[in-house]
Amino acid sequence: MEQFSFIACMPDRPGALHRAVEIITRHEGNITRIQYDRRIDRNTVFFEVKCVPGAYGEIMEELEKIGYLQTSLQPVAFLKFHIYLPNRPGALFKFLDHLTSAGPNITFLDFDDRGQHPERLVVSLNIENTELIDTLLNVLKSRYRLEIVEYDTTGEKLDDTVFYLRFAQKLRTFIGDAEDVFLMRFLQDINHIAQELSNLGKDPKEVFESILKVGETLNRTSGEGFYADVQRVTIRDGLELFCFQLPCGGNIYLFDTPGERVMIDAGYGIYFQDVVNLLQYYGLGDLTRLKRIYITHADADHCGAAGYFPAPSFLNRETLKVARETSRAYGSTHQECILEEVYTKMINLFSRFNPPENFELFPDLPASGEGIEMRGAFPVIARFSVGGLEFEALQGLGGHMHGEVLYLCPEEGLLFPEDTLINFRSLSPERTEYNVLADYLMTSVNVDSKLAREERNALISLISELNEALAGKEQKCVVCCGHGAISVLENGKFIEFGSSERYVAGKCIK
């Protein structure tokens, strides 16, 4: 028995679904998932079925024979026009004869001989075979007075009688000209998210809108729409730390030293060229001087561009596994969560995920647990130097993501806690709005919320210890959050450290 999935597009009439299920049952298929919601699309049903491969082929053949199998997601055009019919018996019938030959779906008709336009018929059509549109219009123009009101091939004007086709057309703007087979499989996954969240009481239309908003925001804020908020911190003579808050997702940190440049996290893949332009603006564009990238965790907004940079990435073995899996929940207590799995596929696709292929792994912790050096609640798994600063790589507890690594320079009190600690008050409204989408679509961005709280508390304790140790230097621990501004902890709250400037369109605005 193997698992198969397919999309059925069936007529909206009594017994249609029963007929499809009868075919599956007759071939001894076991339906493991079915999703149909008239509020979304009254003709489309999603199936997942377990059966032997031969039976699956027979099921597909029978469904296709009766016209129930969705085999492609060809673009559908919307056409609205006014046509003036003679006021005599049979005029509408003859007009509809011409329409039927082109095979459109009529979505709207409006005519009243006592209205302001007694001869005008308003017609709206959804046309799957767009090659027939010109032929249809030429036939109609030769017989009737005709005025084109709207013609759209983007999917924006289609109504919900073809919701999934319209949705697929919008997806193509984010993922390019994907094959129909791939797009239909992706649509299956997205429908699974909608099904899960609907069962949790969320509006399925809002789910689909949120998914599109993720792709739209990433595309809109790359290229000409790219911007970044930038902080520069002089650590000591000849050593400067840059924090680049990208439009969406996590921060990129870069150490500029006389001998090399070192990066912590790499941002979304979709921003790679924008980040290169940004680095060039700040005199950091020579990528041959970028010698190392240290990855905190496997989310696309932190390691998704690492594979585009020439420098090797340093990361945990478990982080590498998560990056290569189809779910960001891999290795956690929620490993089987469908929301995490589908969101990972979606965000990796939308953001052009390119994890590191050139990498070095931190040493594994001994299975026995003996001889492990600890920094507070966190095991020390490696040490490295940047511009004379000694750093510790600390194994995270796995609250936000399995395999996460934190970076700490005890001497200077520099802490990179990835997404476990964030100065939320420093996030712009646009970034907050984008970040909320992931929380909505997965119900939580942490793979283990209880562990994430414990981890935050452990880091706050560690920061307090570092502040005490640095008090003699009149310094505080500088927290380089995964999102938001570089900050310091004062009276239990994160306060932005220093000032920032905004980079946009190749220049900076103070």
Q: Kindly report the average pLDDT value.
A: 91
Secondary structure: number of strands: 24
Radius of gyration: 28 Å
What fraction, in percent, of the residue positions are helical?
A: 25-40%
CATH architecture of the largest domain: 4-Layer Sandwich
So what's the CATH class of the largest domain? Alpha Beta
The number of helical runs is 13
* Total individual domains: 4
Strand content: 25-35%
Overall 3D form:
elongated
By CATH's scheme, which homologous superfamily of the largest domain applies? Answer: Ribonuclease Z/Hydroxyacylglutathione hydrolase-like
How far apart the termini lie comes to 63 Å
CATH topology-level fold name of the largest domain: Metallo-beta-lactamase, Chain A
Low-pLDDT runs of 5+ residues are none
Q: Please outline the major beta sheet.
A: 9 strands, mixed
Going by helix content, strand content and strand pairing, the class is alpha+beta
Largest beta sheet: what is the strand line-up? 14-13-12-11-10-9-8-23-24
Task: Describe the structure in your own words.
By secondary structure, the protein is α+β, with helices and mostly antiparallel strands. The chain folds into 4 domains: 2-65, 2-Layer Sandwich (Alpha-Beta Plaits); 77-152, Alpha-Beta Plaits (2-Layer Sandwich); 163-220, no CATH class; 223-509, 4-Layer Sandwich (Metallo-beta-lactamase, Chain A). The protein has 13 helices and 24 strands. The strands form 5 sheets. A 9-stranded mixed β-sheet has the order 14-13-12-11-10-9-8-23-24. It has a 6-stranded mixed β-sheet with strand order 15-16-17-18-19-20. The radius of gyration is 28 Å and the shape is elongated. The mean pLDDT is 91.
